[in-house]
Design goal:
The chain has about 300 residues and is of the alpha/beta class. It contains 11 helices and 7 strands. Strands 4-5-6-7 form a 4-stranded antiparallel β-sheet. The protein has a 3-stranded parallel β-sheet with strand order 1-2-3, covered by helices on one side. The longest helix has 13 residues. The chain is flat. The two termini are about 35 Å apart.
Length: about 300
């Protein structure tokens, strides 16, 4: 769907939700991703609106803008943007209550949510803990964060829980797997577009998305990527990513990674390299090598 919009005149796909005016929810989403969708929405600057393209609006959304899956969304998106700017449509309020991301009041030695000198969630924000860096043993702050499931540089639906020291991943866990994909979502050129974007080549990424939407080969894209050094920009330790990018640019089948487990490969990698590796896999392979992790002890009780 993003590939179709990439070639629509008058539509600008933004890298950050904070630069957008309209949140377009395209296709089905998991019930477990609703809170993430709400957090994404509330980062939109005012005035703002949401369009639901082949997706069921949240039940508590007032006056939702819905677009049938088979319809062209561009005319309605343009009209919606125009109505927002003219004040003909009211800007949407926040979907989440204004409260801290973590409960902290009354916790810790002084009721600030902390644990002693370090750790915990003081005033609702997680605090880093010291630990040995896995490469050289230095004591560095370690922070655990969750990225996804709607991060532009990751396949849709994929959510990773990462423990980072600086930009090095110490541990990784799949919180939610990527959405299953079919049709144009499985197009190799979309995979190439994600990698090219991460390499700082947005014009080539857009060209790849347009070619994916058209469903045609673009020999000029392969030549342009080589000329711009896209393949050479990937170091030797990312030779597998280079091979998958080369195959994707030619709309060919990607090399099979075998029985590797994605999270095992991410440990010890720098942030940028890890994103490139994740982006290089096709949806079917990703669902096989990055299934959701088993619930940790205590999580099952919370779910129940």
């Amino acid at each position: 769907m993003a590939a179709r919009l990439a070639r629509a005149p008058g539509i600008s796909l933004q890298h950050s939700i904070r630069h957008a005016a309209i949140l377009l929810v395209a296709g089905r989403y998991r019930d477990t991703d609703r809170s993430a969708l709400c957090r994404l929405h509330d980062q939109l600057p005012q005035p703002r609106a949401t369009a639901w393209w082949g997706a069921a609006p949240l039940t508590d959304v007032h006056d939702p803008v819905t677009i049938a899956e088979g319809d062209d969304p561009v005319p309605q998106l343009r009209r919606l943007d125009r109505d927002l700017l003219r004040g003909a449509r009211a800007s949407e309020p926040d979907w989440l209550p204004d409260e801290p991301p973590n409960a902290w009041r009354g916790k810790g030695d002084h009721g600030q949510g902390g644990k002693g000198m370090m750790g915990g969630v003081p005033y609702g924000r997680p605090m880093a803990m010291m630990g040995e860096e896995m490469r050289d043993g230095l004591m560095l702050d370690a922070m655990t964060v969750t990225i996804g499931p709607f991060l532009r540089t990751l396949p849709p639906g994929l959510s990773l829980e990462l423990t980072l020291q600086g930009d090095v991943i110490q541990q990784a866990r799949v919180a939610t797997p990527a959405y299953s994909a079919s049709g144009i979502a499985s197009e190799p050129l979309l995979r190439a577009a994600r990698i090219l974007e991460l390499l700082g080549l947005p014009d080539l990424a857009r060209r790849a998305r347009i070619s994916a939407a058209r469903g045609d080969d673009d020999e000029g894209l392969v030549a342009a990527a080589r000329r711009r050094g896209a393949l050479l920009a990937l170091p030797a330790d990312l030779a597998d990513v280079r091979a998958r990018l080369d195959a994707a640019l030619r709309r060919g089948a990607a090399p099979d990674p075998g029985e590797e487990c994605l999270v095992d490969r991410l440990a010890g990698m720098e942030w940028q390299s890890a994103l490139l590796r994740v982006a290089s896999f096709d949806p079917a392979t990703l669902s096989r090598i990055a299934p959701a992790a088993e619930p940790e002890e205590g999580e099952e009780e919370k779910a129940a």
